[in-house]
Amino acid sequence: MKPAMEKWVAGGVAVLVAGLLVAGVLSLDRPVHAAAVAVRVPAPAGIADLRQPGVMHARVVFAGGCFWGVQGVFQHVKGVESAVSGYIGGSAADARYARVGTGTTGHAEAVQVTYDPAQVGYAQLLQVFFSVVHDPTQLDRQGPDRGSQYRSAVYADDAAQRAATLAYIDQLQRSGVFAAPVVTRVDGGKRFYPAEEYHQDYLVLHPDAPYIRINDLPKIEALKRQYPALYRDRPRRVATLSVR
């Protein structure tokens, strides 16, 4: 499939589903793909407070399918100062949507999250990521999207973040909350490249797009429902950030 067409084909399927919604055959009370990710996971256990004295900002990169939805969820999390869609895992020359869409560049669609550790803990971000953001048991796919660019991964350059992530994945595996093994990769030392400007704030700017309505808006509702103390009604937009 041509890379630029991937989401548009998926969008065509979403249009069909949207028609079924209008006809009353389906209901957003039971969203098509979101049901797989709106999972109640246990809070991370035994993970030390990662806040460091004098550190006002911390960063981590999450990959969990199409970056539109990943960005959209984290923009609604209190304490998140910015959530930028982009690419990670490949070279600078390949950090373009048309190239990444081939699934051959090593890049994943991802979101760089900058947060205030005094307002939201890393453990809380992990809990959101592994419950409402995506389904961590799906290998190289998420919802209607297929390919290694849609893999589940956490890119943390901080050793404490990596250790906490690995510990939480082990906890989830042992908890039995998921019917299948968690396939999320944990990596670091990779450069993050912001995506093209038209990808930034996509969920905020296009809430009525069929793809967003079917695949991503239910994730926002799940965040609000499952983590009311973390939910921020007004998303923190990328807005004037200098991106390509």
Distance between the termini: 25 Å
Discrete helix count: 8
- Report the CATH topology name: Peptide Methionine Sulfoxide Reductase, Chain A
How many domains? Answer: 1
Supply Rg.
17 Å
Sheet with the most strands? 6 strands, mixed
Strand content: 15-25%
Label the structural class: alpha+beta
Average pLDDT, rounded to a whole number, is 86
Name the strands of the widest sheet in spatial order. 7-6-1-3-2-8
The ordered H/E elements are HEHEHEHEEEHEEHHH
**CATH architecture label:** 2-Layer Sandwich
Structure report:
The strands form two sheets. A six-stranded mixed sheet has the order 7-6-1-3-2-8, with helices on one face. Strand 4 and strand 5 form a beta hairpin. The longest helix is centred in the first third of the chain and has 18 residues. The N terminus is likely disordered. It has a single domain, classed as Peptide methionine sulphoxide reductase MsrA (Peptide Methionine Sulfoxide Reductase, Chain A). With 244 residues, the protein is an alpha+beta fold. It is an enzyme of class 1 (oxidoreductase).
